[in-house]
Amino acid sequence: MNLDLWLSFVAVTIAAVLSPGPAVLLALTHGGMNGARGAFFAIMGNETGLVILSAITAIGIGSVLEASSEIIVYLRIFGGLYLVYLGFRLLFVKQKISVDDVKSEMKPAKIFSPRKSYFQGIGVALSNPKAIFVFGALFPQFLDVSRPIGQQLVIMAVTLIVLSFSALMGYALLASKAANKSGPAVAKRMSKISGVLFIIFGIALAADLR
C-alpha cells in the first residue's frame, strides 16, 4: 500500500475512532465502573465486531445490504433495540457497597463478567449496520488499483483495529482515573448518564428507517 495513501487513511481513521459513538460510550462506562482492566474485555469484544465487519466488507456483503432496503430496516431496528436494552441495564444496575465503605473506599460492583462484557462489546460493534457502509465507503477511497487489493484491505483493517483499540483504551483509562478520584457516587451517576445515552442512540438508530 502506498505510504502517502496509508497516512491519509490513518488521519481519517483517527478522526473516526475518536468521535463520540456507542463504542466510545461503552469504553467510558466500563472504564468508569470496572476500571481499565475491566473495560479491556468489552473493548476486545468491540474490536472482534470490527474484524467481523471488515471481513463482511471485504467479501462484498456491504453492497448486498445496500441493495436490500428491507434488510437494512430490520438491522437498524434490531441494533437500536439492542442499544436500548443496554441502556436500561445500566439505568437499573445495582451498586454494591464494599466492606471498606467506612474508610471511604467504596467501589461499584462490576456490572458484567468478563465474558458478558466481551460479548456486549461485540454486540455494540455489530448493532449499527451503518458501520458496514462506513467500511464500504471508506476502504475503496484509499485503494491503489495497481497493487494487490487483498493485501491493502488487510493493512487497512489492521490499522483500523489498532487505532480503535488504542483510542477506546485511552477513553477507558481516563474514565477509570476520573472515577477513582471522584468516588462511587460519580461512578453511579456515570452509569445512569451512559444508560440514557445508550437509549437515545438506540432510539435514533431504530427510528432512522430511510
Molecular structure report:
With 210 residues, the protein is mainly α. It has one domain (3-207). It is built from eight helices and no strands. The protein has helices spanning 3-18, 22-58, 61-67, 69-91, 114-126, 130-141, 149-182, 184-207. The radius of gyration is 19 Å and the shape is globular. The two termini are 35 Å apart. Residues 95-111 have low confidence and may be disordered.
Runs in which pLDDT lies below 50 for 5 or more consecutive residues are 95-111
Q: Mean pLDDT, rounded to whole units?
A: 75
Number of helices: 8
Radius of gyration over C-alpha positions, nearest whole angstrom:
19 Å
- The coarse overall form would be globular
Number of domain modules = 1
SS content category = mainly alpha
Strand count, sense and barrel status of the largest sheet are:
none
Helix content: over 70%
Order of helical and strand elements: HHHHHHHH
State the end-to-end distance: 35 Å
Per DSSP E runs of 2 or more residues, the count of β-strands stands at 0
Task: Work out the strand percent.
Answer: under 5%
